[in-house]
Amino acid sequence: MNADQTQNMPSEETVTSPARFIFDACAFIVYFNNEPGAEKAEQLIEGAKLGVNELYAMSVNLYEVYYDALRSGSPEKAEEVLLDLYTMPLSIVETVDRPLMRDAGYFKTHFKMSLADSLALALARKVNAKVVTTDHHEFDNVEKADALQFFWLR
């Protein structure tokens, strides 16, 4: 490679990776029910379609969304939501390996939260992502402890 070619190559400082986000169940429920904050979730999803963002979720969080749709709607609506979830530009993590288990255990014991939420936080730590949520009740104390970063929909 000659000097002219190296001058035209982007430096490491100008090459940026896509931003990473973990959606918890609350974020998906806000999106599907078109509640306040849904527009922010939609922007992140659209960004993932364009390659600007990378989106992740734990399968147990998708189960919570499916359950919510089933409980508050019809089986047909719940199936539609599930299909939409699995066709989103989203990496779904369905396996809990030992490192994820350990991190989830840490979050669950230190911050007193649900199993599903602790897994979402462990995944966020693993892939270095912000947690997309509306669940201040569960996560305000995690943010105050500076344990992870959050993207609040409202």
Task: Provide an overview of this structure.
- With 154 residues, this protein is of the alpha/beta class.
- The chain has a single domain, classed as Rossmann fold (3-Layer(aba) Sandwich), CATH 3.40.50.1010.
- Strands 3-2-1-4-5 form a 5-stranded parallel beta sheet.
- The termini are far apart.
| CATH superfamily (homologous) name | 5'-nuclease
Strand content is: 5-15%
Report the sheet with the most strands, covering strand number, pairing sense and barrel closure. Answer: 5 strands, parallel
Average of per-residue pLDDT values: 92
Q: What structural class results from the helix and strand content?
A: alpha/beta
Number of strands: 5
CATH level-3 fold name: Rossmann fold
Strand order of the largest sheet: 3-2-1-4-5
Determine and state the CATH class.
Answer: Alpha Beta
CATH architecture: 3-Layer(aba) Sandwich
Instruction: Provide a count of the helices.
Output: 8
In N-to-C order, the SSE pattern is HEHHEHHEHHEHE
Q: Please give the domain count.
A: 1
Helical content band: 55-70%
Q: Kindly, what is the distance between the CA atoms of the first and last residues, rounded to a whole number of angstroms?
A: 50 Å
Contiguous runs where pLDDT drops below 50 for at least 5 residues: 5-13
Q: Nearest-angstrom radius of gyration?
A: 18 Å
Shape: globular
